[in-house]
């Protein structure tokens, strides 16, 4: 696949699809039941190989969380739940609300807002036990998050699970929140920002930096190496241009509810696109609703997250 980088984006995409079609055909030849299903699906889709490929245990899917799997920002919803439980004061909730309003209106992430939300969250949880926050996270998911999962994205994740593949959330949200959401959705697991804890108590500091932008790509690369995955056979899903490094790692990148920069990038490279927002919101960014087209700090934090999960 490395040689494909020297081709133009259009030719590289076409060549990659041909390679994947060949792999799918070989898989179908080995298993007669899948051969019949694949033949029918290829006929229905105008000759495209079925995806995800059933039984491919070296393939996995990586999903961004905020505005990809769930409407809005997980950290904001978590903050609402902590406010209800008297973890902080009204002025802090108002700041969270402003950040969420910006996120909803702009449809993209603001680095300054993210830093502010991170620092506020760290100060709020300082001195609390990790086990306490995990337990509260379960309650908050039921109260504020469960009804905000995009059904379309959930169906995409389920398709990978039904194909026997692993599915991971990859998010800048705290890893404890991400793990709760992944567990409730029946996903394999989650990579997220790691807050430092000593003897099970939060110190108010991070391990490394937030898992954002290029750090997400490093996390996916580290996980793929640890799990013996072939990234050329994997898929990644995100709404934000900040995740282009992660999307570019895999053979099957998807733009989900994309911001304007990611939408342009996806169109230029002929990446698959899905939009599950309302017709009005989709029109605002110029995409038909439910449309489909064809379809060292950050790395350190990811490595520590992997290490903690395996202990």
UniProtKB/TrEMBL annotation:
Pfam families tied to this protein: HAD
Keywords: Hydrolase, Magnesium, Membrane, Metal-binding, Transmembrane, Transmembrane helix
An annotated Gene Ontology molecular function: metal ion binding
TM helices/strands, residue ranges: 285-306
InterPro entries given in the database record: HAD-like_SerB, HAD-like_sf, HAD_hydro_SerB1, HAD_sf
Similarity comment: Belongs to the HAD-like hydrolase superfamily. SerB family.
Protein name: HAD-IB family hydrolase
């Amino acid at each position: 696949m490395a040689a494909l980088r020297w081709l133009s984006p259009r030719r590289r995409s076409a060549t990659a699809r041909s390679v994947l079609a060949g792999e799918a055909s070989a898989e179908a030849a080995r298993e007669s039941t899948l051969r019949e299903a694949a033949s029918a699906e290829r006929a229905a889709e105008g000759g495209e190989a079925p995806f995800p490929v059933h039984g491919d245990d070296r393939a996995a899917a990586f999903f961004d969380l905020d505005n990809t799997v769930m409407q809005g920002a997980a950290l904001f919803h978590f903050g609402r739940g902590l406010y209800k439980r008297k973890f902080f004061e009204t002025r802090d909730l108002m700041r969270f609300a402003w950040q969420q309003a910006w996120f909803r209106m702009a449809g993209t992430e603001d680095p300054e807002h993210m830093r502010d939300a991170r620092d506020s969250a760290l100060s709020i949880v300082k001195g609390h036990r990790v086990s306490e926050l995990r337990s509260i996270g379960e309650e908050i998911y039921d109260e504020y998050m469960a009804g905000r999962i995009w059904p379309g994205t959930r169906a995409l994740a389920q398709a990978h699970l039904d194909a026997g593949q692993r599915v991971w959330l990859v998010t800048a949200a705290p890893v404890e929140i991400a793990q709760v959401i992944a567990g409730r959705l029946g996903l394999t697991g989650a990579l997220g920002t790691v807050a430092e804890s000593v003897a099970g108590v939060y110190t108010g500091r991070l391990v490394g930096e937030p898992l954002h932008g290029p750090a997400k790509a490093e996390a996916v690369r580290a996980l793929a190496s640890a799990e013996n995955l072939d990234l050329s056979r994997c898929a990644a899903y995100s709404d934000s241009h900040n995740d282009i490094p992660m999307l570019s790692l895999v053979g099957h990148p998807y733009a989900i509810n994309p911001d304007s920069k990611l939408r342009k990038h996806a169109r230029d490279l002929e990446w698959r696109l899905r939009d599950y927002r309302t017709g009005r919101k989709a029109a605002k960014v110029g995409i038909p609703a439910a449309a489909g087209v064809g379809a060292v700090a950050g790395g350190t934090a990811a490595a520590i997250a992997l290490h903690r999960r395996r202990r």
